[in-house]
Amino acid sequence: MVAKISIGSSLYGALSYNGEKMNREEGRVLGANKIILPADGQIDIARMVENFNLFMPKMGRTKKPVLHISLNPHPDDRLTEQQYEILAREYLDKLGFGEQPFIIYKHMDIDRHHIHIVTVNVNEQGKRLNQDFLYRRSKKITTELEEKYNLHKAQREKISPDTPIRKLDPSGDIKRQVANTVKMVGMRYKFQTIGEYNAILSLYNVRCEQTDGRVNGREYHGLVYFATDDSGKTIATPFKASRLGKFASRAAIDGRFERAKDKIDIAPTKRKVTDVLTIAADKSDFIAKLKERNIDVVLRYTDEGRIYGVTFIDHESMTVLNGSRLGKEFSANAINERFNNPANEPVNTPDVAIPIVAPPIEPTSEDPHSDTTQEQDNNQPSGSQQQSTSTQHTTVTQSPTDYGDSDFALPGLDLFQQGQSFNPEEEEFRRRMQRKKKKGRRPKF
User: Fold this and answer.
1) Residues in CB range of 230: below 8 A, 6 or more apart
2) Which partner from 19, 126, 168, 386 sits 20 to 30 angstroms from 370, CA to CA?
3) pTM
4) pLDDT (tens digit per residue) in 205-216
């Protein structure tokens, strides 16, 4: 059994969190101490806060009086609700909180059912309870309970360099899966922007967003993580970085951005992508051939289907690179022109035999099939004719700069910003306005 203890200042926040589980029928109250529970089971959060306040001093120096504890038995331990309550009460007794006001919840939001306890660490006289070696004492208590009730011994999952990173399993412990994914991605991969960070996280159905603002006059800069399905739709309540661990924080990720600058070598990735881009028949072939070389490519599209972002994830060199980092020819505009514009698809030019040119024949009035076009073609020199034949198979590639490079890197925005799309009507309007400007000019005398 694993116990997790959070010490905070918001009693209402802790009760609301568990109340939301009950509203979604993912939790229920198992028992309480010194807290009046309604007979109909309809929990009023404000009234519960009042119940707690009856046993707390009106004024005190303890800034964080709230304890929010979760007890997580092994998934193979199938316990009744009565057994869960017995475990919770005995745990609190041994920890020294058995006489405190508390409420016990059972959560069923994941297959592994578990317990949440909300209590306070100050008594009615305003004295803070003993919290010395709290986590060490908690560990000793859970070990004693495992032995007493013949429960499976809890073993935290150890992450090693060989531990594979897997997509989130919606039926499992989502928070733990998100935390493990974030930790392993941060340990192994090198990236320099929030967009590149999100590209690698997206392979495992995790998304990260920056949060900036002010609370009580103080600025804050944080990160929030989302669990998603394969289409990118959020499937669970978002997690603040602080709930996952320091490794997921804004400071930790910004530090990885800085350290990656001196460690990334784009040459191996660029060489492999260049080889594939040269021979790829279409976009699907491009993606498949990169996959064979252990590179994933993440493409981002506008609503109109235009590619506005491209990121390459090289699992051999453990680097994540926006296309524009490799060069203009790998930017979003260039990839869009290459695969979304049929005129720019590569053509396998067959060997063209140079025809033998017959001497020009003077047209006569008796020849009804002669025309001026044939005469002009036949009067061309042979070199010019060869050039005309070869140009039939020439592919004209639109420069990605013609419409502006929409894959430029803005830290924190390159995954979300929309790229420019070429609109013929807008372009024609722009040209008309330029012509009007020219007509409106008057010569100076």
Assistant:
1) 205
2) 386
3) 0.53
4) 999 999 987 766
